[in-house]
Amino acid sequence: xxxxxxxxxxxxxxxxxxxxxxxxxxxxNGVDLVASHPEKETVLVELKKSFSLKLLLxxxxxxxxxxxxxxxxxxxxxxxxxxxxxxxxxxxxxxxxGLGLIQVYFGPRTTRVDVLVDPGPYRPRKRPxxxxxxxxxxxxxxxxxxxxxxxxxxxxxxxxxxVLQVAACVAEHGDCPLPTIREITGMKNAASIVQKxxxxxxxxxxxxxxxxxxxxxxxxxxxxxxxxxx
Length: 230
Description:
Blueprint: H1 10-18, E1 23-28, E2 31-36, E3 43-47, H2 53-62, E4 68-74, H3 82-85, H4 87-97, E5 100-106, E6 111-117, H5 128-140, H6 158-173, E7 176-177, H7 178-185, H8 190-196, E8 202-206, E9 209-212, H9 214-224
Parallel strand pairs: 3-4, 4-5
Antiparallel strand pairs: 1-2, 2-3, 5-6, 7-9, 8-9
Helix pairs in contact: 6-7, 6-9
């Protein structure tokens, strides 16, 4: 069911809150819905036909009046709907801003109110492994080979730089045993790079001896000419 007016969201949310012992009134000092509870902080709800920047900004303004602010929108089956396209990101953004998020489902027979996010202080989950990966990539990458905002070309990562260094060693010295590659490059992970062969640039000639594949030669040549490779 398509929602034509924001007022269509009012009654379902009012019933939802009244069932939880709130007294609800609409359009109080510019706020779409205000719900008062004898033991809890006042709830403010802003109603919109779709999720938008305007709704977010409105919600942020309402935080000056109460810590219990919800943004309410109807559910939509449209693929272009922001909440459908970026469901998890929108929820995360609301949490980050301390805003609640309500979605109202209008079915052919029933109407349902779903609270997707409750307002409250933002407590991000720490991800030390991602932080370490970021730090390691920054530290290990040589120079600054990728202009910020680069799109449509391969990013030169620290690992790719290492593979290129190993490939250059193999190209220069011919069929190389792994200890020699490690010694010349000074890289402890040289053997691992060759054996894992992530890009398909190396091939084994005999036990412990490797050379470049044709693809490896092409990539090394492209890099030398200033290309990004595949």
